[in-house]
Amino acid sequence: MTQKQIFKEFIALGYDGPGTRIPGLTDIQLAYYVIARITSTGCTIINLLSGTTIHLPVDLIDLFESLNAWGGSNILRAQPEDKIDKTILNFQTLNLRLARRQGEYFMNTLSEICTTGTLDFREWLKSECKLRIKPIEFSSLDKYKEI
Amino acid sequence: MIPKEIEIQEQIIQKLQKHDISPFSVVFSFEAGDPGGMLSITFYIQAEMNEILGILGYKNQCDKSGWLILEKNNTIIFTGLALLHLYTVL
């Protein structure tokens, strides 16, 4: 059984879509000058040194947090390297650096999101599971990108 | 109710707009830069950053410990007394 088949089974079993989050804001310091800001719309990782942000939509976080709760996180890890988007690979590097510090649980979730390669994964979710997930948004002084 | 961090960010944006400056990013966090929080402002162009530094009289400041200036990223980070100075002068 492939990873995606297992994922499809998981969604059929227990994922009900994004949950309700408490309005407001929580900051987690991930490293020096790097914070994760959790709001009702999702989570934004902010690099204070350059103003660069990565915004993860709430439905994507909820999906992967549910997966954590079901103990199925390992099924997503063994993606072949040539299929991973280069930008996603950067997130993985970020995760490796940050997981040793604070917000470890959150960083695990981020790692799982990134390991899948989100563009391909979102398209697959749309076609196979009828789930529409908003893209991750990357924003820096030089560029804005939807992943 | 608006979180305090967002309220502070909006105040800073308004203060900068009085000087005809619209920054790329203004982020305030209590979690970083304890105690009192940390403010990061990233400008689109370096000339705007220099203008603000001029208004704040950065060169004449004796104590530069609460300032972090990243010219390459057009970013200024304020903590402690520098943050207080920004609030009073701007």
Give the quaternary arrangement of the chains: heterodimer
- Count of distinct structural domains of chain A: 1
Percent of residues in helices of chain A comes to 40-55%
Going by helix content, strand content and strand pairing, the class of chain A is: alpha+beta
Q: In DSSP terms, counting alpha (H) and pi (I) runs of 4 or more, how many helices of chain A?
A: 5
What is the average of the pLDDT values of chain A?
A: 74
Question: What coarse outline of chain B follows from CA principal-axis ratios?
Answer: globular
How many strands, what sense, and barrel or not for the largest sheet of chain B?
4 strands, antiparallel
Based on secondary structure, the structural category of chain B is alpha+beta
Shape designation of chain A: globular
Order of helices and strands of chain B: HEEHEEH
Biggest interface, chains and residues, is: A-B, 15 and 20 residues
- Lateral strand order in the biggest sheet of chain B: 1-2-4-3
Low-pLDDT sequence parts of chain A: none
Task: Please give the number of β-strands of chain B.
Answer: 4
Write the layout of secondary structure elements.
The complex is a heterodimer of chains A (147) and B (90).
Chain A: H1 3-14, E1 25-31, E2 34-39, E3 42-47, E4 52-57, H2 58-69, H3 86-98, H4 104-115, H5 118-129, E5 137-139, E6 144-146
Chain B: H1 4-17, E1 25-29, E2 38-42, H2 46-55, E3 67-70, E4 75-79, H3 80-89
Antiparallel strand pairs in B: 1-2, 2-4, 3-4
